[in-house]
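Tutorial handout. Part one gives the primary structure; part two gives the three-dimensional structure as tokens.
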Amino acid sequence: MPSLGETCAMLAPLTWACAVVLFRKAGDLAPETMNFFKNGVAVVLLGITMLVMGVSLPTDRSVGDWAMVAASGLLGLAFADTLLFAALSRIGAGRLAVVDTVYAPTVVLISFLFLGERFGGWFFVGALGVLGVWPWPPSKKGLWED
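Part two.
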């Protein structure tokens, strides 16, 4: 049975895919507007979840830790998501999905370079499956032919 982390990792792309389609259907809103709305809803839902679950912010973290969290939030939630919404409005959801395949390999590379993560055999099996190059089921046609 998969762990909670694995389950969340599998549900995240599904959730993002639904959200991207809904944001595209929303019409011609400015990327900044869509991002502000998304982050506002996220803060409210996170607050409600924390209240219901009885969770509070940790107080045992340093100012440096909180600065890194704030910086990553600004990069990811403010800057990167605004760029994502700008791309969505300019090139559409389908093309954005193709370009977005660069995301996972970039995370792997950055994790290797800056976090010192190492990857074993099962990682590469999973990576091939995610990238869609796993040659199963075999067919008489070539792997990339229609």
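Part three, for discussion. The chain has a mean pLDDT of 84. The chain has one domain: 4-47+68-131.
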